[in-house]
Amino acid sequence: MKVAQSKDRKIILITGSTSGIGEATALALADDYDLILCGRRKTKLEKIKDDLSPKSKIKTLCFDISDKSQVENAYESLSDEWKKIDVLINNAGNAHGLDFIQEGDTNDWDNMIDINVKGLLYLSRHVLKDMVNVNKGHIINLGSIAGTEVYAKGNVYCASKFAVDAITKGMRVDLNNHNIKVSQVSPGLVNTEFSEVRFKGDKEKADSIYKGIEPLYAEDVARVIKFILDSPENVNISEVSLLPRSQASSTVVKRKS
Ligand code: 8X3
Q1: Catalytic center residues
Q2: What is the C-alpha to C-alpha distance for residues 123 and 125, in angstroms, rounded to an integer?
């Protein structure tokens, strides 16, 4: 069934929407919004588009967010109608490696800074230009508990999330005159592909991170994002942190033996 793009339905762009929090958020929002889904995995994007098309008008953009010219080309490929983005959800981001600073792999550092920080900035720059022109919009950045607490071997990943926190605050100040809401959602341990990516496919290592606890799931974070979007026009839920019940901080986690 084809769903017509309605004038009343807002448009939301979600980065990193091929898995985890991004995919769960797309699922949670498809009933109420038209969606631009971004990611690097074309087949996965097409599959999500097929799944959600009965509920929503879906546009997919396949590009690498860390590549400035790919970001520009992807954005410019949107029609004027699709460029009227009401909400940008900056979700794309990953951890690569967990090493003492003196042993870190510089390629991992580049990846984290290029995607989590520079990619977020590149895309926001394009979308914000249009939001500022119409004096409305909403940015939701995915932060992390790692953006407020540094843990052993987290060094550069934590730095990238501290940077996201600073960018969120900077956006809120700079966009205040333009009626643009800026929110940040900062989860603790969420069981997604996050740890598998961090440990380069080592499933056993990845599973050990969530051993003995019930972590958050991507759907838990998506629910918070939906709650933020459901708030009245006059309300900006500026910062939300969420942890699994068994997590008290980055390093204090109660595990069943
Ligand atoms: C993910 C949370 O604590 O694994 O951003 O770094 S943590």
Answers
A1: 157, 161
A2: 5
**pLDDT one-digit tens code per residue, 47-89:** 999 999 999 999 999 999 999 999 999 999 999 999 999 999 9
Nearest CA to ligand 1 atom 2: 188
In 3D space, the residue among 78, 60, 3, 2 whose CA is nearest the CA of residue 33 turns out to be 3
CA 195, 197, 200, 202 torsion: positive or negative? positive
- Confidence class for position 4, pLDDT limits 50, 70, 90: low
pLDDT digits (tens, 9 = 90+) for 17-32: 999 999 999 999 999 9
Ligand 1 within 6 A of 188 CB? yes
114-159 residue pLDDT tens: 999 999 999 999 999 999 999 999 999 999 999 999 999 999 999 9
**CB of residue 250 inside a 6 A radius of ligand 1:** yes
Query: Count of residues for the chain?
Result: 257
Domains by residue range for the chain, with CATH: 11-242 (3.40.50.720)
Measured in Å, residue 250 CA sits from the centre of ligand 1 at: 7
**204 CA to middle of ligand 1, Å?**
17
Q: Write the residue with the smallest CA distance to atom 5 of ligand 1.
A: 144
Ligand 1 centroid vs 247 CA: distance in angstroms?
11
DSSP state of 216: B
Query: Among the atoms of ligand 1, which is closest to the Cα of residue 188?
Result: 2
d(CA 162, CA 150): 9
